[in-house]
Specification:
about 220 residues, mainly alpha, 9 helices, elongated
């Protein structure tokens, strides 16, 4: 067998084993929680020796840290899905919030652990929440398209309005990270509904004489 082919097979098996350990850890985090899960439990469930675990991950927290990279990718996928819908900007915002709420409901404890890890590793004073940064531009696109269609107020620029939309959603997420019992799903829906109303086109004030909207 050629040496290159042998090396390729070894690398493939190594990647597959790493992915197996990673997925096993994810399932245990979901079932028991991150803090309650040990490396020994992960190794046993993955049917590998603890030393094999450490050959692939420096620690249990290294597995969680790797999961944080998936958060941004997943949020981008959620907002991209909304960009593909032929609906109003408001419906896209509500759809995004519903998507986030559904995902949190499926993996509530793990999702919070991942976001907290992301904040610890990436948050900087005066900067946006790291998990929302990748969706700023897609949200600005949603706002711009809404403005062009007459669905969104045009007296403020799209980037600013996108910041306000994400800021309102982030308030709910921040409260939840501080208090795991916080009703995140409910608040995400309320925040999305509130901001959707706030970005509606402005109605000109009525003319005091005719009672019609002034131009």
């Amino acid at each position: 067998m050629p040496e290159a082919a042998s090396e390729g097979r070894r690398q493939r098996k190594k990647r597959q084993l790493r992915a197996h350990i990673y997925e096993t850890a994810r399932q245990l985090f979901l079932k028991y929680g991150y803090e309650a899960t040990t490396v020994a439990q992960i190794a046993e469930a993955a049917d590998v020796a603890p030393a094999t675990f450490f050959n692939h991950f420096a620690s249990k927290s290294a597995v969680l840290a790797e999961m944080t990279s998936e958060v941004s990718e997943h949020l981008q996928a959620l907002v991209d899905a909304q960009l593909g819908r032929s609906v109003s900007a408001q419906e896209r915002i509500l759809g995004f919030a519903d998507g986030v709420a559904s995902n949190v409901a499926e993996a509530r404890g793990l999702a919070r652990d991942v976001l907290l890890e992301l904040m610890r590793g990436s948050a900087r004073p005066g900067r946006d929440a790291p998990y929302l940064s990748p969706v700023h531009e897609p949200f600005a696109t949603i706002i711009r398209e809404g403005q062009a269609a007459g669905q969104v107020r045009a007296d403020l620029d799209a980037v600013f309005l996108a910041e306000m939309v994400l800021g309102a959603l982030n308030v709910a997420i921040t409260h939840w990270m501080n208090d795991p019992e916080f009703p995140l799903e409910q608040w995400l829906g309320r925040a999305a509904a509130f901001i959707s109303e706030a970005i509606q086109p402005r109605t000109p004030p009525a003319d005091p004489v005719s009672g019609k909207p002034s131009r």
